[in-house]
Design goal:
Blueprint: H1 10-22, E1 43-47, E2 50-53, E3 58-61, H2 76-86, H3 97-107, E4 115-119, H4 122-137, E5 141-145, E6 190-193, H5 198-208, E7 212-217, H6 231-244, E8 247-251, E9 273-276, E10 287-291, H7 293-296, H8 315-328, H9 333-355, E11 359-364, E12 367-372, H10 381-384, H11 389-401, E13 404-405, E14 413-414, H12 421-438
Parallel strand pairs: 3-13, 5-6, 5-7, 7-8, 8-9
Antiparallel strand pairs: 1-2, 2-3, 4-10, 9-10, 11-12, 12-14
Helix pairs in contact: 2-8, 3-8, 5-6, 9-12, 11-12
The structure holds 4'-deoxy-4'-aminopyridoxal-5'-phosphate.
Length: 439
Amino acid sequence: MSGTEGLSLGQTRALWERARTVMPGGVNASARMNSALGHPLFMRRGEGAYLFDVDGNRYIDYCISHGASLLGHGHPAITAAVEQALGMGGLLAYETELQVEVAERLLALFPGMDMVRYTCSGTETTWHALRVARAYTGKYGVVKFEGHYHGVNDTVGYSHWPDLAKAGPAQRPRPVPDSAGIPPANNDLITILPFNDIETLEDSLRSQADTLAAVIMEPINYDSCGLMPTPEFLRCVRELTRELGIVLIFDEVLSGFRVRAGGALGVTCTPDMTVLGKAVGGGMPISAFMGTREIMETCTPVGPALHSGTYNAPPVLVAAIGALLDEVTRPGFYEHLKALGARLYGGMNEILARRGVKAWVQGVGARFGLLFGLDREPRNYRDVAQQDMEKMRLFHLACLRRGVYLHHVSPHHGYSIAHSMADIGETLDVMDAAIKELL
Ligand code: PMP
């Protein structure tokens, strides 16, 4: 039984057969394989909160391009900005006034960040930021936290969602490469630590201070469903990295603009560098890394850390950042975004309580996780790994059949500003019916 009875997917499956002969797995990103279905979906278009697939099915979308389309699919302001910038000459791989103006506006939203360089993807920007941190400190070691994700690059492509059989003890996780092909020598440069564990953090940073260039972390760990750092842990990370000459990098590829206009934690904690992707481009493929002037001037041509690229900062994409900034700084934007979340998360909790299902809703800003089998807030990846993945799979399928798309097997879902209260209401009805079916 596929679990998709009643959902017409004939064209989708035929297209997948064709796709598999010309693209490995029939996809261009492994994350696009929908493991609940056993194949990807093929879309015709997205519009606002909706996806329309090649079979004509309509879904309310809670993947929203893995978080990139915070404004919804095809937001008119983004489209207009891109169209206007295209008129400047297509790619136009040169500096223009636009890069300067948008840099000034972007930096104003990130306290402590003095300078920026634009890049193309989240993977690329974390990799560049780490190179700069290494060049700046003259050290090579990197600390990342288990369950955090920083892209597919060979430097930090470790222990995103590691197999617990390989991951070692909870207090001293072993680095588990996320991919084959990462040189084993890289293992010596990465230290994996448990999130929210002050004792292990202090012990590890003090004992390796002479070799550590950077600590990289998601300030809100959305890649494990939206885990919050405890205030004490955050304070400890900040104070220790400062004391020991280690660059603290916040990876805000998912968390940036998700909770407020700027970094997720506001002024609560200021890192030395911040990397951005996804939402910052309003759905267009652009990313950025930022930092203090002293660190950023390590970049060529001022300093020795090579940073260049034909596709860096094309006006057509930088213009999309400008349009995103216009939208998120409009009065009421985040109040409305939060109101949508309050309705969705409140409604989900009500359904779970009414139907007597043990599951935890971890909703933070515009992204959330739903963890079956948990009845209290998870603090780290090991807590999250206790969830019932099979129940999650069945729930995703039951929602999909009823027109609500929760990307499987993603640990995080999200909505956009284009979702209406009516969409949320319809989603809750679908979730209620899906939960009833699972009981
Ligand atoms: N950092 C974080 C926190 C992410 O969530 C992601 C993508 N999910 C990345 C980096 C990598 O971004 P990209 O997929 O654009 O390479």
